[in-house]
Write a structure and sequence with these properties.
Layout: H1 2-32, E1 38-39, H2 41-46, E2 50-52, E3 59-61, E4 69-70
Parallel strand pairs: 1-4
Antiparallel strand pairs: 2-3
Length: 71
Amino acid sequence: MRIRRILAAVIATAALAGLGLTGAATAASATAQGAPSYVTPSQCKQGGGTPAINEAGNYCKGGTYNGEQVD
């Protein structure tokens, strides 16, 4: 009987710990994908990219800010 209780407690603890880890990963990915970030044309150039202002979306191409919207 005692072994079953210990085993049940271990399984429950592992399950709750697993849920906590997946919740933390979900929160981290939601934060990373939050509001879109904008960079200035000069920041894009300083990061090694080229501001594509005349193209659809006005994005920075290449460099540190690749894919971020230029404002």
